[in-house]
Amino acid sequence: MGRVEGKVAFITGAARGQGRSHALRLAQEGADIIAVDICEDVEGTVYAGATEADLAETVRQVEALDRRIVAIKADVRDFDGLRKAVDDGVAQLGRLDIVSANAGILTSPSNAENFSDETWNTMIDINLSGVWRTAKAAIPHIKAGGRGGSIILTSSEAGLRAYQSAAHYVSAKHGVVGLMRTLALELAPDMIRVNSIHPTQVDTDMIQNEPTYKLFLPDVEHPTREQFAAASQSVNALPIPWVESVDISNALLFLASDEARYVTGVTLAVDAGCFLK
Amino acid sequence: MGRLDGKVAFITGAARGQGRSHALRLAQEGADIIAIDIVDQMDTVPYGMAKPEDLAETVRQIEALDRRIIATKADVRDFEAVKAALDDGVAQLGKLDIVSANAGIFSFGAMEELTDAEWDELQDVNLKGVWHTAKAAIPHLRANGGGSMILTSSSAGVKAVQNIGHYVAAKHGVIGLMRSLALELAPDMIRVNTVNPTSVDTDMIQNSATYELFAPDLPEEERTKDVLGERFKTLNALPIPWVEAVDISNAVLFLASDEARYITGVVFPVDAGQLIK
Amino acid sequence: MGRVEGKVAFITGAARGQGRSHALRLAQEGADIIAIDICEAVPENSYPQATEEDLAETVRQVEALDRRIIATKADVRDFAQLKKAMDAGVAELGRLDIVCANAGIGGTPNRAEDIPEDEWTNMVDINLSGVWRTAKAAIPHLKAGGRGGSIILTSSDAGLFAYQNIAHYVSAKHGVVGLMRTLALELAPDMIRVNSIHPTTVDTPMVQNEGTYKLFRPDLEHPTKDDFAAAAVGMNALPIPWVEAVDISNAVLFFASDESRYVTGVPLPVDAGAAIK
Q1: What average pLDDT score do residues C59-67 get?
Q2: pLDDT per residue over A98-130, tens digit each?
Q3: C72, C52 in Cβ contact below 8 A?
């Protein structure tokens, strides 16, 4: 019997990276999945956005585990689209227990005073307001189930401390902590738990790109993956450059499962000791 | 008009360094002072501690400001001695408004190498001594109808530094003690806060033993203050190696004054940004 | 000699309440003031906004202290307006040393899932992005001065922990902490310090209105100020219902002055112990 057997999980940003990993890990343990992703490039980001083919691949891999999945193209900046996706998913899969608000972006590094209004607003709209919209779309379904539930917000190490040249990202990810704490208080009477996860660097497309390398190595003209690995490792206490998506998924699985039935309002760092340093 | 006119402050570890600086800064703003210091060497402390003539110099400087001071040799590990010195000071100066629990020692060693003697002596001074100071002061502050207690913790009270685990544990403990005192004493309008300095330019760090901790790779003759300053600078966000004692005193003064009349339970770093690095 | 003699301070939301109090306290200690305020109603706010007469009254009171003030109607949601007001003020007064990003709204209470889209985005745009825009407009002037400087961001106790029914406010105020930490890191090399202040309830029009009363006393149809006071006192450790604007101003003054020259990256509660309760 799986650790989340019979439950249904809603995951944003599920076409690849951490989101796909969460879908697979929860499906391995018995959950059915409602997956959304923008499947488009987002203006200002420094890496190619996920595609519809990526989302289809997530579907293929979940179905290969003999679990059901409803996958829909939707943007966390558009509440109506998001709500329609969740409503459709719940209509098909019958319930909602788990929410992973995972969708997020990273843009080119800049000093705080040099970000444009557009770049700043897009970041806040996706990485903070998009998390709120995800919760907003999901809460009525979880409440309607009357069985409680678990909402997991993906924040970041940058939700606990600052990094230079990413003021918009740090502000949004700190804001997610405030949102998590408020939701945890408001939803506690319904036994709906809300927690946030704070990864250090995760080995995904969002960080494995030259502009992100330059965030860590501003003085190197064309930093390589190897140079980034060394710089990345220097911020962690454990002697590793980054964690894998599955490490975040394992933390998410614990919080999603009944093993964590009385854990709420917690900021859980999965950070190789980064916060200590 | 001074910012502390007519108030009386009790300061531990007042013979030199931060303690003397606090006494002078508070006296400049109108406070009378009750001062204690062990003025003796302790077995596990790897640098020279204050001497009776240091405490006499503090007295001389306070009296040069035309303020009154009652100075007594007393060890914060000995509650009866602390109480006797404070009771005597209050009897002579009439009341008590402000407490600066400043006395502390420093030693170092990796966790698996520290001796019981090093651990115990440091906890006794840096944690139990702070509790003794508060315990002796509370009846006088209650009788006074309110007051302000400032406990000296450290940036190591919030974040670990290697090879001083006993110091880190004690300084974290001081924050727990502060929060407990702040809650218990709030109904009596007695406020309790910590100040959390980064490295301060005093004898506690400017000594050959501490230099060795920061520069084990250099031969002793190359461990100059300038060279060590560069090492210390890497700890801070602001481009400075250490702060001066008066910077801590200015924070103590703010917390002691009525300008901070509604501030309690607060961890107050004076740390050149060390904690956000 | 005043504690900020000869310095120039930029203050947002300066028409009344905490903003006016900051202007007066800094002017009393020798600073000249650049003041802005929206002086207009903000939709969905449950209390009347400041007016142009309010801003004129701030001007009158600062000038009565024999200090100069340049006051402009401007909205923190509009960077061009902010920059124009800032640039004109600095041109007139000759320099910039201190920034108080104080402008903010309280919003209307709602469960997270019931907050309308426009109220969420407006809240985040004013209380988080508006703070960023304020810093963005100020940083070039602070850097150009070459004398360092001090930026003080007004967050809230809601920037440290959650209150129910104001998820948008809590998220924005947590985000301000992330922004403060990033700015503190980025600006440390220029000796520009950045800190945040976290007030509990302050006795200003933003809280003294029936909308806020009902947030605290949902059980009453028309709660009065006394009903609110009885509920508010329960949030604080000190036995008081709220602090006065001048208590926040005294903390602003400490951060603005050279007494805190090495204090940066610090979230300072002025909260009557609410955070430790």
Answers
A1: 98
A2: 999 999 999 988 999 999 999 999 999 999 999
A3: no
Q: Which of C40, C6, C39, C10 is nearest to C22 (CA)?
A: C10
CB–CB contact B264 C273 (8 Å)? yes
Nearest to B159 by CA among B174, B145, B142, B171: B171
Residues of B with a Cβ under 8 Å from any C Cβ are 179, 182-183, 186-187, 189, 191, 198, 236-240, 243, 247, 250-251, 253-254, 259-266, 268-273, 275-277
Q: Bridge partners of A218?
A: none
Nearest to A185 among C79, C120, C164 (CB): C164
Question: Strand order of the sheet with strand B147-152?
Answer: B69-73, B32-37, B8-12, B98-101, B147-152, B190-197, B267-270
Residue of B nearest to C186 (CA): B237
Q: Which residue has the tokens 């990526």?
A: A54
So where are chain B's domains? 8-200+244-268, 206-241
pTM to 2 decimal places: 0.92
Contact A178 C184 (CB under 8 A): no
- Strand partners for C110: C166
C270 contact residues in B (CB cutoff 8 A): 260, 262-263
Q: Is A248 helix (H, G, I), strand (E, B) or coil?
A: helix
Residues 6+ apart with CB under 8 A from B66: none
Q: Contact at 8 Å (CB) between C76 and C82?
A: yes
The dihedral sign for the CA sequence A66, A67, A68, A71:
negative
Kindly list the catalytic residues of A: 169
Question: For residue A31, what are its two tokens?
Answer: 């959950």
SS3 B136: helix
Nearest-by-Cβ selection for C112 from A132, A170, A176 = A132
Please give, rounded to a whole number of angstroms, the shortest distance from the CA of B6 to a CA of chain C. 20
Which ipTM was obtained for this model? Answer: 0.89
Burial letters A202-217, b for 16+ CB under 10 A, else e: bbbebbebbebbbbbb
Nearest to C171 among A163, A179, A184 (CB): A179
Q: What digits encode the pLDDT tens for the residues C192-218? A: 999 999 999 999 888 898 888 988 888
* Average of per-residue pLDDT across B90-112: 96
Q: Chain C: give the shortest CA distance to residue B217, in Å.
A: 27
Task: Kindly state whether A162 is in contact with chain B, defined as any CB-CB distance less than 8 angstroms.
Answer: yes
Residues from chain B that touch A276, judged by Cβ atoms under 8 A, are 159-160
Q: Is B262 a catalytic residue?
A: no
Q: Is B71 helix (H, G, I), strand (E, B) or coil?
A: strand
Residue C224 CB neighbour total at 10 angstroms? 12
B276:A162 CB<8 A: yes
Give pLDDT, residue C44.
Answer: 66
Alpha helices in chain B (DSSP H): 17-28, 52-64, 79-93, 116-123, 129-144, 165-185, 208-214, 225-233, 245-256
The number of C-beta contacts closer than 8 angstroms across A and C is: 138
pLDDT digits (tens, 9 = 90+) for A178-196: 999 999 999 999 999 999 9
Q: How far is CA C57 from its chain centroid?
A: 18
Distances in Å between the alpha carbon of A155 and those of A199, A200, A266? 7, 10, 12
Locate tokens 């300072």: which residue? C268
And the tokens for A194?
Answer: 């809300």
CATH 3.40.50.720 fits B8-200+244-268, yes or no: yes
Q: How far is the CA of B95 from the CAs of A36, B140, C276, in angstroms?
A: 68, 7, 28
Backbone angles phi, psi at A200, to 5 degrees: -75, -160
Q: In what order do the strands lie in the sheet with A8-12?
A: A69-73, A32-37, A8-12, A98-101, A149-154, A192-199, A267-270
Tokens of C176: 């301000």
Q: Which residue has the tokens 């440390």?
A: C188
pLDDT tens, C253-277? 999 999 999 999 999 999 999 999 8
